[in-house]
Fold this protein.
Amino acid sequence: EILTEIPYGFLSFFSLYVFERRLKDGWKGRSAAAFLLVVTAAYLTRTIGITLCFAAIAHLLFNPGGDGADKKKAKRLFLISAASLMPFAVWSLRNTVLSSGVSTYTAIFFQADYYSEAAGVLTMSSVASRLIENLGLYIEAVPMVLAVYPKLKGMVPGLLLHLINWMFILTVLTGFFHELYSKKGVKDFYFLFYLSVLAVWQVDSLGNAVRYIVPLMPLFYYYLFVGISLAAGLIAGLARPEYRRRLKIYALLPCLLFPAVNLVEIRELFLPAAAGKRLSATFGLLRDGLIKKNEAPTPEDVAYGHFLKAKPCYAAYIAGAFYLKGILRQNDVVLARKPDMVSLVTGGNAVRFPFTADEGAMERFMEENGVTYILVDTCYEEARRFLAPFISKRRDKLRTLADDANGTVVLRYAGKR
């Protein structure tokens, strides 16, 4: 499993680059197709990439001239941007049809609480509550994506750290609103729409909040530098003429600090021995993943060895999946918290259980999806919240096949079939 933030970051900024270049050089059939293909690849990598399409459309609406004074080209580009939404619509429909009753990303967006189906759909009050919760997490997360801030934690008093935190955020926002007002560029609308989606998207931890904003790191740096430049210009305008040039030079120092810290942080990547080892490992993974088909994955293939040792519950969960691998038949279906991992190990079918404590709803879901086995884990709270009530009420339909004595259990389900 590879986290998609980095490839998405590349594809999203490549989309912005293609858009800006084609807007400047003129749109022809091949150029238009390039933007369509790249932006489609971006939002099929991460769903939030759909904001790239809306950013392109918004840019055209606020800058109708497009390619100079030729409005026909702007209209053509608008149609191309709209056409880029079509693969997203088709993909969303495909996901809905094949979702097996489990919420898709699009459906999750409109749920009041992803971890409880009983909470119902999103309402104005739940949107307000989510905005407040998310705001607190992202205020803390934004400075953490900048190279210097994590180094300051533990080195400066908490009050000063909070002051630095807000200084970063206000400087970034100053730079952003200046760019949005003065240029109305596609990057500015993309930044606005991306953060607007994050504001109402469910985030359950600071770690996930940091992950979600990683693809925007280059723009955070850009707006930070713009904000610093604006502040320096304002101060220089108030200072005596002989000090203005010196103040502008001083404004460059914090901007140079960030790339300097980044270079220090990643210096080991450029050491010949370290670089050679990483390249060798990368090519090995590509060879094994693309050329060799691993018919018999091991626990280490599914999770790194050190992770298995650090989280015994996860090691037990993987062991349960390997147990199922030996008994599954072609039409069997496993109910589990992480069906992708179970399917990877077993090569069979697996579905995620619905997040509901309603035993009747759980049973209907299992009957509709032909569930024959249940893999219960102790790593995820959802198993305790939603599987445990069902298991306690339907003991007559369940038979224990494997039990690690710590709560990880493989059960055989005998439904109405």
